[in-house]
Amino acid sequence: MEDKLLAREIARKMMANGVSGRMLFVTSPHASTPRNLPHYSAAKAGQTMVVKELAKALGPHGIRVNAIAPGAVPGGGFSELLYGRRNWPFTTTVLGKSRNER
Asked: What is the pTM of this model?
């Protein structure tokens, strides 16, 4: 939540000085696609909503707020089995079924 507090303080200074500009947050595709870590997905979903709220509130003041979601970066939370899957996690649903399965 530090990012929201920092953004708020920066926005206050920008508006007080009549400065327009941009804020960019880094989020994750897991804001809308679960990855079996509920706390992580919930945090990223919350961050994404904060970005949307900031964009709505600060846009009229000339401050553009956006987020990028760079995708999966191999690390401790990934299984070696998933590295070979093409376009994971977007080729399957939450239940593990192919997007083409009904």
From this structure: 0.66
